[in-house]
Specification:
Strands 3-2-1-4-5-6 form a 6-stranded parallel beta sheet, sandwiched between helices. It is 47% helix and 15% strand. It is globular and about 55 Å long. The chain is built from 20 helices and 13 strands. By secondary structure, the chain is α/β, with parallel strands linked by helices. Strand 2, helix 2 and strand 3 form a beta-alpha-beta unit. The relative contact order is 0.13. It has 3 domains: 184 residues, AglA-like glucosidase (LDH C-terminal domain-like, Alpha-Beta Complex); 115 residues, no CATH class; 65 residues, no CATH class. The termini are far apart.
C-alpha cells in the first residue's frame, strides 16, 4: 500500500479533513500517512488528533510524524503540498502598504495569485524547492499541489521538473450550492467546468438528461431578486457562488462562472471600493474588509477549537469533526491511481489539446478520468470567443508574467505588473510602492531574488 506524505501537515483543518477522507476509503487501508511540518507543536497536535480519530473509527492506517522533509519524501508515492509560507501576517502588512499608495485591498484587488506575497513569490519559491527535492529523492512520486496559487504553482512544477504534477481544488463543487438553491436534485445533475484554477466556467449543465441552462435562466429571471433579499444571502459574505456579480459575469461573458472565479477574475469595476463591492457581493464579499476580517477571525476560532480538542483527551473526535467525506478530490485521486477505479475528477493538468486555443503545456482545470496508469482528459473544445479574449487569455498571460519574473529574477517585470494595474496613475506611484515593499525586513528574500 502507498506512502502518502503531507508537507505542511500543521494545517490543522486540512489535515483533519484528509484523514477523515482516508478513513472512509477502505481500499486504502494499510497505507502509511506521514505528517511533516517544521512547527513541532502543530505537528504533535495534528498527529495526536489524527491518531485518536483513526482509533475511534477503527481505521487501519499507519501514521508517522517528522520535521525532516527528506525522511517524509523518502519512499513516498504521493507528496501533498499544503504549505502556506508565513501564513497571512506579512500579506496583511503588504496590503496595508499597497493601500497607502492607492491600491485598495492590495496589489491585485481580487484573489488570483496574491497568496504568497507580491507576485506569489514566497509560495512559488517554496513549491519549486520542494518539487526539486521530490525529483531528487523520489522522482516517480506524484506531486499534488494543494496550496495556492495552484495555477501558477502547478505550471511552475510542470515546466521546471519531470514530476507527475497535478493541481487540486474543490471550487467546482460550489456549483452544487447553486443547484440546491434552485431546488434541483443532486443525483439528477451532470455538469462540466473548464478553464484555469479559480477561473472555471460551466461548459455543460444537464438536469435529468436535458440542458439545464434554461432552468438557470428562468431562476435568474424569476427568483434571483427575491433570493438576494433573503437572510440566507444577506448575512453570508462567503455565499459568493450565487450573487449579483456571478449573474452579471454570466451576462457579460456567456458562460456561468463557478467557484472562486467571481473572486479572481471579476471585472475591476466590481471592486473599486467597499460600497461598490456591497452592490455585487453580500456584505462586500469574502475579499472586502468585512468578509476578510470574518475569515481571519474564523481561522482563529477553528484553531482554538482544535487546541481544545487536543487538550481534552476524553472528547469524541468522530462526533466533533463529523464522519462525512470532504469535498476535496485528493483521496479519491489516490484511491483511483492505487486501485484503478476510473473515477471522473476535476483536476489541474497540462491541457494537451483539451481546450482549443490554449497551448498543451499550460495547466487547465477540467474533468478527467483517473486510473492506475493514465489520466484521460475530457474534450472541451472551444470556449466562447468573448470569454477567451477578455478573461481566459488575460488570466493565462498574467500567469506567464508572474512565472517569467520569477524564473528570470526580473525586478523590472514586477514593476511593470504594478504599472499595468488600472489603479496606477503614474509610473512613480508604481515605483514607490515596489521600493517600499522591497525595503521590508520580511521581504528580504524577495529583494534578494529579484535583481
Amino acid at each position: 500500500m502507498p506512502k502518502i506524505s503531507i508537507i505542511g501537515a500543521g494545517s490543522v483543518s486540512f489535515s483533519a479533513s484528509l484523514i477523515r477522507d482516508l478513513t472512509l476509503a477502505k481500499d486504502l487501508y494499510g497505507s502509511t500517512v506521514t505528517f511533516m511540518d517544521i512547527d513541532e507543536k502543530r505537528l504533535d497536535m495534528v498527529y495526536d488528533l489524527a491518531s485518536r480519530y483513526m482509533k475511534e473509527v477503527s481505521a487501519n492506517l499507519k501514521l508517522e510524524k517528522t520535521t525532516d522533509r527528506e525522511r517524509a519524501l523518502d519512499g513516498a508515492d504521493f507528496v501533498i503540498n499544503t504549505v502556506k509560507v508565513g501564513g497571512y501576517g506579512f500579506m496583511e502588512l503588504e496590503r496595508d502598504i499597497a493601500e497607502k499608495h492607492g491600491y485598495y485591498r492590495g496589489i491585485g484587488d481580487m484573489v488570483s495569485d496574491y497568496y504568497g506575497g507580491f507576485a506569489a513569490f514566497k509560495q512559488l519559491n517554496f513549491i519549486l524547492d520542494l518539487a526539486r527535492d521530490v525529483e531528487r529523492i523520489n522522482p516517480d512520486a506524484y506531486f499534488l499541489q494543494v496550496s495556492n496559487p495552484v495555477f501558477e504553482g502547478t505550471n511552475l512544477v510542470v515546466r521546471e521538473t519531470k514530476l507527475k504534477a497535478i493541481g487540486f481544488c474543490h471550487g467546482a463543487e460550489e456549483f452544487k450550492m447553486v443547484t440546491k438553491v434552485m431546488g434541483l436534485k443532486e443525483e439528477d445533475i451532470e455538469f462540466q467546468v473548464a478553464g484555469f484554477n479559480h477561473c472555471i466556467w460551466l461548459t455543460k449543465f444537464l438536469y435529468q438528461g436535458k440542458d439545464g441552462y434554461p432552468l438557470l435562466n428562468d431562476w435568474i429571471e424569476k427568483e434571483s431578486a427575491r433570493y438576494f433579499q433573503s437572510e440566507e444571502y444577506l448575512n453570508n459574505p462567503w455565499g459568493y457562488q450565487l450573487c449579483p456579480a456571478v449573474i452579471e459575469m454570466y451576462r457579460l461573458y456567456g458562460l456561468f462562472p463557478v467557484g472562486d472565479t467571481v473572486r479572481s477574475v471579476s471585472p475591476w469595476w466590481f471592486n473599486t471600493d467597499l460600497e461598490t463591492k456591497k452592490k455585487w457581493f453580500s456584505s462586500g464579499g469574502p475579499d472586502s474588509e468585512i468578509g476578510w476580517t470574518m475569515y481571519l477571525f474564523g481561522l482563529k476560532l477553528r484553531l482554538r477549537s482544535m487546541i481544545m480538542a487536543y487538550e481534552n483527551k476524553e472528547l469524541s473526535l468522530a462526533r466533533e469533526f463529523s464522519m462525512l467525506p470532504s469535498s476535496e478530490s485528493i483521496v479519491p485521486f489516490i484511491d483511483s491511481v492505487v486501485n484503478d477505479k476510473k473515477l471522473r475528477l476535476i483536476l489541474n493538468v497540462p491541457n494537451n489539446g483539451a481546450i482549443e486555443g490554449i497551448p498543451d503545456d499550460v495547466v487547465v482545470e477540467i474533468p478527467v478520468i483517473v486510473g492506475k496508469d493514465a489520466i484521460e482528459r475530457e474534450k472541451i473544445g472551444k470556449l466562447p470567443s468573448r470569454l477567451m479574449v477578455h478573461i481566459i487569455a488575460p488570466r493565462w498571460w498574467r500567469m506567464e508574467n508572474i512565472l517569467q519574473a520569477f524564473r528570470d529574477r526580473d525586478r523590472m517585470s514586477l514593476l511593470l505588473m504594478i504599472a499595468e494595474d488600472h489603479r496606477t496613475k503614474s509610473f512613480e506611484q508604481a515605483k514607490n510602492l515596489l521600493e517600499e515593499l522591497l525595503m521590508q525586513e520580511w521581504n528580504s528574500d524577495l529583494r534578494e531574488h529579484y535583481r
